[in-house]
Amino acid sequence: MDRLKSSPQLMIVSDLDHTMVDHHDSENWSLFRFNALWEAHYRQDSLLVFSTGRSPTLYKQLRKEKPLITPDIAIMSVGTEITYGKSMVPDDGWVRCLNQKWDKDIVIEETSKFPELKRQAETEQRPHKVSFYAEKDKAKHVTETLSKVLEGRGLDVKIIYSGGVDLDVLPKGAGKGQALAYLLKKFETEGKPPVNTLVCGDSGNDAELFSIPGVYGVMVSNAQEELLQWHAENAKDNPKILHASERCASGIIQAIGHFKLGLNLSPRDVSDIGQNVENGSPGLEMVNFSLLLESWRCAEVEKTELFISGLKATTLPSGFFIHPSGADHNIKEYVNILRKVHGDKQGKQFRIWVDDLLATPLGSDTWLVKFDKWELSGEERQGCVVTAIISKKDSDWFTWVHVHETWLENSEQGLWIL
């Protein structure tokens, strides 16, 4: 990852469904907690990797449904596809690795002879993954028989059964574990091996992640029996693997603290945001401001002139604010708009979150900060790209110098305040 000048301090490699994303949490609270923690304290010097069984199509669909932040790397289709950054640039080296002793046409031909296998949707059929549904009581027999058949045809494959329903046929060199091993070797070659790596999962297709030497691992509290059984049979005495007492993303936060991998107090868990500001980083400043604005609009902060005056005190008199509409305002005067929107989201499910934050030093006490800011109100989501210049000279508090916002592509352009 070119943006990191040295080894990432922490690399989190997490499954998505029922691990990072809690589908039983309608308010996505644990995910919002993790998002705030990562952007405030880890985005600048660490790597976030999503490792999912979902195809790119279903992965993108999940990103529209849930408030996921952008990973540095996405491992998709049960470890058969690796992409980088927002643009999801594919790793061609990984493709070449998987082409060895693999022929998708032969796999399709032989699997069609098994009536026990029900083919999944076409979006889930990928260049190096052929996917089916299979009943639990028939999966073992099918797996053993199919493995021998494909080996007889000269292929080197692995068959993964997970979730009590999904059966995937992959090249033998594929899988979540092998994809992670490939990345770690790549970082080692580049002279940037992660200082610590934490893998996170809940089901059978995550087991390989926990087998990578040297990593820390967390099985979230809602982990499925198949992963717990694997752990009991293969790694029960490994002190680097934790069965968390918390669900999903909250279990990941718990593991960061348990293994002492870094800060694990999310800004969303701090009752008084002000106490979390002094000596903070540009990332923490941006996250805290978004949480303060969220609280103001939900009337969780008392409407006082002292609050408005405090915000004005953190802005440069000559600074400007450019609204996504293109309107240009004096930044200190534009703060007055907050008086009008106090409590406008009271009683509603309203959240603001920061994504993909990057702070670039412009000097010893000034930073250029760029990030995506999202607002979710009920089912409506809108977002903008924020580019800000902030400084910190004679106090523990940041001064906002300039702010420029532009609409994110495909964003619903409703009422946007700050």
TrEMBL record:
Domain annotation Sucrose phosphatase-like: ranges: 8-260
UniProt keyword Ribonucleoprotein present: no
Superkingdom of the organism of origin: Eukaryota
Keywords: Hydrolase, Magnesium
Short name of any one Pfam family annotated for the protein: S6PP
Cofactor or coenzyme needed: Mg(2+)
EC number: 3.1.3.24
Single GO MF annotation: magnesium ion binding
Matches recorded under InterPro entries: HAD-like_sf, HAD-SF_hydro_IIB, HAD_sf, NTF2-like_dom_sf, SPP-like_dom, SPP_C, Sucrose_Phosphatase, Sucrose_phosphatase_pln/cyn
Pathway(s) the chain acts in: Glycan biosynthesis; sucrose biosynthesis; sucrose from D-fructose 6-phosphate and UDP-alpha-D-glucose: step 2/2
Enzyme class: hydrolase
Summary of the function given for this chain in its UniProt record: Catalyzes the final step of sucrose synthesis.
Family named by the database record: Belongs to the sucrose phosphatase family.
Oligomeric and partner information: Homodimer.
Name of this chain's protein: Sucrose-phosphatase
Taxonomic lineage of the native organism: Eukaryota, Viridiplantae, Streptophyta, Embryophyta, Tracheophyta
